[in-house]
Design a protein that fits this description.
With 109 residues, the protein is an alpha+beta fold. It is 26% helix and 33% strand. It has one domain: Alpha-Beta Plaits (2-Layer Sandwich). The relative contact order is 0.26.
Length: 109
Amino acid sequence: MGSKDWKYELVILFDDEEGTALDQVIAFEDELIELLDGVAEVDGHDTGSGTAHISILTNAPKKLWERLEPMVEEKEELGARAAAYREVDDDDFSVIWPSDFEDEEFTLD
């Protein structure tokens, strides 16, 4: 898990129904790597089942999201759908954005 023992994983989920989001997600991931140096650790990205996501390891997921939310909302072309976090050894996510998230549960299929 890198050089630090992180407690939480924050995941930002994007729409990728067309299967074309990968390049944009990687570009955004690169921005996050520079921005979060030392504060949190970008753990990677994945695509599939009509979605793409970026995983970030952190000890303060809500505080980190407060910092990232304006950036994510500004990048409308990415089609951000939700942000959620969980303890690194847990399976269940807690959605922190948007406040009206309507899917039954947040999963990374």
